[in-house]
Amino acid sequence: MSLGHNHYRRYLRSGLRKHRNRARTFAALALLACLPAHAHTHTHTHTHTHAPHRTTVVWHDDFGGDQPRWTDWSRCAQPWEDKLSQCSALVSGSGEEVFWNPALLGGGRDPVVRGAEGGIMLLARPMTDTERALLDREMARQKDLQPRYRDALANARWTSAWMQTRPSFAIGTTVSAMIRPGAGASSWDGLWMLNDPAHRRWPPEIDVAEVTNEPDGRMHVRQVIHYRDETGQFRTAGCPIAVIPRDWITVSVTRLAGQIRFGLNGVERCRIPAPPGFGDPMNLILSEQVGGLAAHTDATTVPFGLEVRWVKVTRP
Fold first, then answer.
1. Residue 180 burial by CB count (10 A; 0-12/13-18/19+): exposed, middle or buried?
2. Fewer CB within 10 Å, N side or C side of the chain?
3. Residue 294 above 80 pLDDT?
4. Strand ranges (DSSP E) for the chain?
């Protein structure tokens, strides 16, 4: 073949290749345009960020001042705020060595104080001689005090705090709080729920969190319910005990029809069936207890307390 002929053939082959490549490109683009959007993500990691669930705040207290909003809290178990017997412990046999809220005696120290980093602290302290004398005087004044309460108060060596929400919260809501547990060897911190006073009986009880200092130096959080089964036997069900740091944590419980869900630090820990009796409105209780589930009180002589930065109740 002549040189001119070969050059012409090379020119044709080159043009043909260009047209083929261009056609392949157009075909590929057309194919991609027909694919669904998620088919383009094959080179991305398979992590999906979902939009947060929108919730409505039903009630909250961020403890912005030096004290809680006392219009929303009771210092003792409703509706017995004026009854000394309902401000004492040791009545359930669980071993608390506390007298709640000595300020109710008209001369004791207020156990609800400002937290070190904001929020509030429910402070447990050894009882002073003045508080002991005030308590003895009040016990003598209340002639109808039941023997078990009288014995409990006679043996009380500590003062502390109990706070209960005045509003009660219906099924379908989530109760959550940010807390820092007490550092005392005998600290027993409680965030728990009981039926509101109109329906009050025990059990049922929901322990949103019970936090204790263990003898080995670790902190344990228990998230459980207490109830009676169909035969009347007392039962407990809930999540396994979790070991937590000595730092701020968030805890939560969600009550649904037939189910209770516990959360810790934004992660759901467990779901348990809700026995009968857990559908009524319930109040939230904050308490700093001494002894009981925790190490013995002889191990601690200095004040300690449960810190609470905020509490809120939400619904979908």
1. buried
2. N
3. no
4. 56-61, 73-74, 99-100, 112-114, 120-126, 158-160, 162-165, 174-180, 187-195, 205-213, 219-228, 234-238, 242-244, 249-256, 259-264, 267-273, 282-290, 304-315
Distance CA 310, CA 69 (A): 12
Phi first, then psi: give them for residue 64, nearest 5 degrees: -70, -20
Q: What percent of the chain has pLDDT over 90?
A: 35
What residue type is 259 in one-letter code? Q
pLDDT higher than threshold 90 for residue 169: yes
| Rounded distance between C-alpha atoms, residue 281 and residue 239, angstroms | 23
Per-residue pLDDT, averaged over 283-287, amounts to 93
CA distance 133 to 115: 28
Ordered by start, the domain boundaries in the chain are 1-30, 56-79+111-125+160-315
- Per residue in 84-123, pLDDT (tens digit) is 655 655 434 445 567 777 777 777 788 889 988 889 999 9
Residues 56-79+111-125+160-315, CATH architecture: Sandwich (2.60)
Global confidence as pTM: 0.77
Residue 237, beta-bridge partner list = 225
Contact 219, 212 (CB under 8 A): yes
- The C-alpha atoms of residue 191 and residue 233 are separated, in whole angstroms, by 24
